[in-house]
Amino acid sequence: MVLESIARIIKIQLPAYLKRLPLPESITGFAKLTVSEWLRLLPLLGVLALLGYLMIRPFLPKKKLQKDSLINLKIQKENPKVVNEIDIEDLKSTNACYCRCWRSKTFPVCDKSHIKHNELTGDNVGPLILKKKVS
Q: Which pTM value belongs to this model?
């Protein structure tokens, strides 16, 4: 049943549709088409544009990681994440994490926004961790 319907469309309805289209004999004939004739050509032109795009799509450049948006360009690039620990005696809390990716919504305090940034860009930036020495 499905194949019969497809065969009917290809053998009967498509040729009949194409015969009714107002295709001019030359390129200059397109300028003489009326608005209603252009509207009748619109579905065919849309299908042809879609088919053309699908044919050239494999040759278009692929979307790559956003390497141009890296923040950390050279510090400890061999590590999966750069984390520095600094002991400071007079911290009010035991430790504090400060943002170095500039993406934190609570900047300067780290809110772990660097995790998403690293996944999107391939970067390896991490927080600055300040630790109070335990006596």
A: 0.42
